[in-house]
């Protein structure tokens, strides 16, 4: 089966999944107590006439199934609607925040995969050695530390006392850099949040790589490779790692969804202007259109993540074919 | 009022004192705010801390506090308040209130333009307040309830015609969260003002012009070269930076990354720490919004329908302890429904419920709720919005205090949306607590949570369900009375009635701490707390 057909098939599977997710989330969100009008009018209250008009304007006076029907029609035309709270188009709100989250997430993902796999291979080479023990202790420790605490400690030490790195935000507002200076400024601001998230995520990858590599290294074909007289590096990387990475790829693929969910804490601690914080605020204010927009976006991301995982499988293991 | 404060506002005050109504001066601890104007740099950047993104940049539509502060820099209002709460010219140069209190005539400053160069006229004022603010903003609808029409009689004259006298109107027009003036040429286009692009890219008449809004990061404003107060603002750039992490706000101020933490970004515990740090001024911002922490009894439910039970429970609360331990001493024990910070209307009238657990026990015995075999009289639920800072500690303290009088308190912190639903729509609570404004005028802040007509699940805020026609009559008379002294008397009557019946427990009157770089001068001490930063600058 060709790659194109495989992709088409996967997308065909994904569509009813996405629609199902929209319906389920829509109903769940409306079932949660609270509504946006009560948030908007505040603790001073408002005239019932005004409240009734606001409800009608937002379509909240209709039964849930009518609201759902209207919403699905609207989404099918490619319109995610306007936020109830800020009144801005939902798609703009999401796209505005997406680059910051992607920057943070991709950087930490790449770093934690590189470092995690490297440490995993190192410790699998001689299980039980002092190096393996040291790496194990390190990764268990970073895995156990809550990210908000780790972030706070990084802010206090590297930021506040040592003055090495900026502690909040993405750019230096006072300086207002442009061009290359701006790029360097953003990179400088990324150091602490990326460090915090990388430390958290590399542990899982290190543990998985280690376990899977130990298993692979005990197999016959590795012995054959060694017997052929290949260098240790070639055995580890070209023969063993390629096989050992499969479970690691699975887990990273599954972790895709937590890219945004997990960003909430980090983005809050470091005032990083990403999607995590946007979602969190939308829940607090019962901003239904924005919430739905975010959920649809996350569903799409998970589906894309799984697709990439499947493709990577085939790349790593020629025995897997698109069928 | 200090000498310097007086001088700063002197020229404004000379223009306006003759028009000012009812200005028993507020006791403002203004010494920290007041600095020597002559030594202010022309230029510079100010970074203000925001707790999160504002809802939008149009306070004609939203009453959100942080939005109002930003919008108050970009848009203008007809009048503004000085540090004493007195009304001063802003977009209107002069005004006149007719003898019968039914006609307000404002004359605008000449030659003012919108930030896009269009002329600013009386038509903008009349059209926007009537067609946008009044239609879409609950607070504004309340403020303008007495107004029958707003007319632009010529380019510079706006006339408000009232159905009945409403003295709070003038000071109310200084609040950006209800009286922001929008540009008609951008909003009168037949489409929904809530979806107008200007809500993200506002064009105003204020001292600062909008430059950019990076959601989740910051909002940048630059000075308006055509601002109608000559030589102002001092600052070139004004940046509102989002810092959601409470603990990091103080660190950012200490490092010099941020310069000013306004009250809405300040946590009480952080204030205590910052007070001791060199180079940082930490002080209290007096606000006529005069917030008060209070607990509502659900008077529909047994046993809170019995006044003696409510009074007994009130006697069982040690409010000194709450204030000291939950609020870090930032406030004063409340005496009733009007905060002592609301000094134009506050009187220490009414019944005061001092901490007296023995009396509380005796009253509960007499009301028919003796201790049971397990030592408990009854169990009650206490709900609050978990986001409301000091409430968690307050709940724990009340639980311990009431355990002594045999009342078992079940504490239930709630998510904000769920809490509003339970409290205001379903009335599903025994006792609920939080903070409510009692200002800027009791007709705006206080009345709306006690009158019978506000017992309404659709937007009404009288959650306790307390209804007393005698009290309603007093409130309605006070709201329409023109004579200030008489209004103060009427509100004292209202306080008498309410404290005697105790549908609420009034816990403590809030103070609003702020912190800023000591080299900063001229931060507005105005009690709306949204005032423009046109006098703010850095020391030479």
UniProtKB/TrEMBL annotation, chain A:
InterPro entries registered for this protein in UniProt: BPD_transp_1_N, MetI-like, MetI-like_sf
UniProt cross-references to PROSITE patterns, sorted A to Z: ABC_TM1
Membrane topology classification: Multi-pass membrane protein
UniProt KW keywords: Cell membrane, Membrane, Transmembrane, Transmembrane helix, Transport
All residue ranges annotated as the ABC transmembrane type-1 domain in the record: 98-309
Protein origin, superkingdom: Bacteria
GO cellular component: plasma membrane
Location in the cell: Cell membrane
Pfam families in the record: BPD_transp_1, BPD_transp_1_N
Transmembrane segments: 12-32, 102-122, 134-162, 186-205, 245-270, 290-316
An individual GO BP term: transmembrane transport
PANTHER family xref list: ABC TRANSPORTER PERMEASE PROTEIN, DIPEPTIDE TRANSPORT SYSTEM PERMEASE PROTEIN DPPB-RELATED
Family according to the record: Belongs to the binding-protein-dependent transport system permease family.
Protein's UniProt name: Peptide/nickel transport system permease protein
Organism: Pelagibacterium luteolum
UniProtKB/TrEMBL annotation, chain B:
GO CC, any one term: outer membrane-bounded periplasmic space
Solute-binding protein family domain segment(s): 87-449
Keyword tags: Signal
Protein family per UniProt: Belongs to the bacterial solute-binding protein 5 family.
Protein name: Peptide/nickel transport system substrate-binding protein
Signal peptide: 1-34
An example Gene Ontology biological process: peptide transport
Transmembrane segments: none
GO molecular function, one term: peptide transmembrane transporter activity
Keyword set includes Repeat: no
Cellular compartments annotated: Periplasm
């Amino acid at each position: 089966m060709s790659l194109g057909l495989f992709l088409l098939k996967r997308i065909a599977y994904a569509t009813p999944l996405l629609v199902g997710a929209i319906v389920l989330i829509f109903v769940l969100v409306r079932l949660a107590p609270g509504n946006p009008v009560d948030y908007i009018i505040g603790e001073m209250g408002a005239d019932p006439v005004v409240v009734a008009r606001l409800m009608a304007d937002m379509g909240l006076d209709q039964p849930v199934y009518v609201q759902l029907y209207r919403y699905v029609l609207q989404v099918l035309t490619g319109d995610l609607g306007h936020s109830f709270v800020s009144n801005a188009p939902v798609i703009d709100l999401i796209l505005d925040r997406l680059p910051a989250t992607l920057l943070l997430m991709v950087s930490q993902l790449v770093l934690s995969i590189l470092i995690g796999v490297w440490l995993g291979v190192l410790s699998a080479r001689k299980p039980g050695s002092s190096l393996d023990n040291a790496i194990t202790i390190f990764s268990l420790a970073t895995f156990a530390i809550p990210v908000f605490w780790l972030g706070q400690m990084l802010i206090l030490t590297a930021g506040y006392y040592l003055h090495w790195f900026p502690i909040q935000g993405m750019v230096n507002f006072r300086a207002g850099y442009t061009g290359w200076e701006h790029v360097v400024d953003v990179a400088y601001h990324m150091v602490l949040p990326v460090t915090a998230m990388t430390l958290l995520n590399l542990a899982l990858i290190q543990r998985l790589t280690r376990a899977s590599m130990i298993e692979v290294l005990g197999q016959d074909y590795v012995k054959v490779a060694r017997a052929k007289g290949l260098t240790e590096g070639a055995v580890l990387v070209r023969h063993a790692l390629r096989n050992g990475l499969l479970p690691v790829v699975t887990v990273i693929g599954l972790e895709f969804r937590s890219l945004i969910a997990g960003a909430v804490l980090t983005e809050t601690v470091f005032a990083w202007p990403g999607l995590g914080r946007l979602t969190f605020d939308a829940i607090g204010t019962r901003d239904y259109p924005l919430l739905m927009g975010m959920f649809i976006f996350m569903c799409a991301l998970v589906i894309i993540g799984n697709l990439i995982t499947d493709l990577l499988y085939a790349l790593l293991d020629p025995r897997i074919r698109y069928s | 009022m200090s000498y310097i404060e007086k001088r700063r506002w002197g020229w404004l005050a000379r223009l306006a004192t003759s028009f000012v109504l009812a200005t028993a001066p507020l006791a403002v601890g203004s010494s920290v705010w007041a600095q020597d104007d002559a030594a202010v740099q022309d230029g510079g950047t100010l970074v203000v801390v925001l707790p999160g993104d504002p809802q939008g940049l149009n306070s004609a539509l939203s009453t959100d506090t942080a939005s109002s502060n930003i919008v108050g820099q970009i848009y203008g209002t007809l009048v503004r308040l000085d540090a004493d709460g007195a009304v001063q010219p802003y977009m209107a140069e002069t005004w006149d209130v007719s003898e019968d209190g039914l006609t307000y005539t404002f004359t605008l400053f000449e030659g003012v333009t919108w930030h896009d160069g269009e002329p600013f006229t009386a038509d903008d004022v009349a059209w926007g307040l009537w067609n946008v603010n009044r239609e879409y903003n609950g607070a504004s609808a309340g403020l303008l309830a007495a107004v029958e029409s707003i007319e632009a009689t010529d380019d510079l004259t706006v006339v408000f015609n009232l159905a009945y006298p409403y003295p709070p109107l003038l000071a109310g027009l200084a609040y950006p969260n209800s009286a922001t003036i929008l540009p008609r040429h951008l909003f009168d286009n037949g489409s929904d003002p809530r979806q107008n692009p200007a809500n993200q890219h506002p064009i105003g008449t204020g001292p600062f012009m909008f430059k950019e809004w990076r959601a989740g990061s910051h909002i940048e404003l630059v000075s308006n070269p055509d601002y109608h107060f000559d030589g102002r603002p001092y600052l070139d750039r004004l940046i509102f930076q989002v810092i959601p992490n409470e603990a990091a706000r103080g660190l950012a101020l200490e490092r010099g990354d941020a310069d000013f933490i306004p009250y809405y970004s300040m946590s009480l515990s952080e204030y205590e720490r910052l007070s001791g740090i060199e180079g940082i001024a930490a002080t209290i911002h007096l606000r006529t919004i005069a917030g008060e922490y209070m607990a509502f009894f659900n008077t529909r439910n047994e046993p809170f329908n019995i006044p003696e039970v409510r009074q007994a429970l009130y006697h069982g609360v040690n409010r000194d302890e709450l204030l000291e331990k939950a609020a870090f001493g930032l406030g004063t024990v409340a005496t009733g429904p009007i905060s002592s910070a609301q000094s134009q209307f506050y009187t220490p009238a009414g019944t005061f419920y001092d901490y007296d657990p023995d009396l509380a026990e005796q009253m509960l015995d007499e009301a028919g709720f003796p201790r049971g075999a397990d030592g408990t009289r009854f169990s009650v639920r206490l709900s609050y919005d978990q986001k409301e800072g000091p409430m968690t500690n307050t709940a724990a303290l009340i639980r311990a205090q009431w355990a002594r009088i045999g009342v078992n308190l079940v504490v239930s912190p709630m998510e904000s949306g769920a809490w509003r639903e339970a409290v205001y729509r379903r009335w599903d609570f025994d006792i609920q607590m939080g903070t409510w404004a009692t200002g800027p005028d009791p007709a705006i802040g206080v009345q709306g949570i006690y009158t019978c007509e506000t017992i309404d699940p659709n937007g009404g805020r009288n959650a306790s369900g307390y209804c007393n026609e005698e009290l309603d009559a007093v409130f309605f008379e006070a709201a329409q009375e023109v004579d200030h002294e008489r209004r103060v008397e009427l509100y004292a009557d209202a306080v008498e009635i309410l404290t005697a019946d105790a549908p609420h427990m009034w816990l403590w009157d809030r103070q609003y701490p702020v912190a800023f770089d000591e080299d900063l001068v001229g931060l507005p001490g105005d009690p709306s707390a949204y005032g423009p930063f046109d006098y703010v600058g850095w020391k030479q």
